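ugh ok fine here u go
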Amino acid sequence: VLDNGINIKLVGLTMTGGVAEEGGAIAVLRDSLVRLEDCWLTDNRAGQKGAAIHLGAGLTVLVRTRLTRNEAPRAGPIYIAPRARLVLAHSLIAGNRNQGGANGPVYLAPGAGVEVLNSTIAYNHAHGVYVQAAQGKKRSMLRVESSIIMGGSHAIWVARKEASIVEVYRSVLHGQIGFI
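structure:
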């Protein structure tokens, strides 16, 4: 669990078997900068959301990092709260499950921001990326570039058209029902 003002870089670690209410491997609760390079987060569990990573605030950067076989009732392996931002670069999110619904492995709450760059999100339970509906002026921002996103029903699920800003460049989106 990372608290206020932490600046941490983790390189070459495997985080496995973590169990928590939120964030089985990593929970960033306040403004911090977290960078994972060449890491593997696998077989982690959460009682609620964010089986591997729960981002409450701050910036988290995942570079060449894999998230596999993580499981939570909601929001699969990564949950991004309203004040949090995630950059996913050259990484893989595959084979993860959420037990009770269609939320994807990457879940953006209103006001969250995510950049998916040269990464793959595929073969997970439910949607590829789930963008929750806006609440007032809190709109999420999702940018996908040179990536592959596959979902069981939709590659990217936007709860309502005014919910967020979604930009997709030079990427492959695949869903069994639709793309976005």
